[in-house]
Amino acid sequence: MARRSMRTEIIEAGLEQFHSLGFNAAGVKGITDAAGVPKGSFYNHFDSKEALAVVALQEYGAGRRLAELRDPAVDPLTRLRAHFEFLRDETIGYGITRGCMIGNFGAEIADHNDTIRTAVREALADWADAIEATLADAQRSGEVRADLNPATTARFLLSAWEGTLIEARTDRSTEAFDVFFAMTFDTLLR
Fold it and tell me: Hey, how many other C-beta atoms are within 10 angstroms of the C-beta on 164?
């Protein structure tokens, strides 16, 4: 069987290191060690740790299942709830020790690095667009209040979600998730 691309292995290891340690604590040597590739191979594929971080953010964003938010075969609120349930379950699967890599990067380095700030902004915009489209579908089907602005509500939900992750990690508890789901689906979107 053919060996996977070193680039792919570096991206996967980088994503794991960035998500578990953060941008600043993840080093090129740690990433290449985790990938099982020589350190010199890193620079054959990436100009810098920052360049890898942008690709890792894109890969992480692809893993958020945004396409499922736009699936017309599923009722809009069902897909929105399933989206956040997937994210909650993923967080619980990590023992509530990791937040969202997009939000983590935004908090950790966006003030100090324009390239990362741009990548975070683009990732949040893609995510908000998918939620906005779902909310608009839900309004058309009568599942969501007509007076809500889908774009503003999508941005609010993302902010609320990122805050929920901070609280869950701080408490090492699922209680924040319960509050998020109750406020979102039983109050805000009713």
Answer: 25
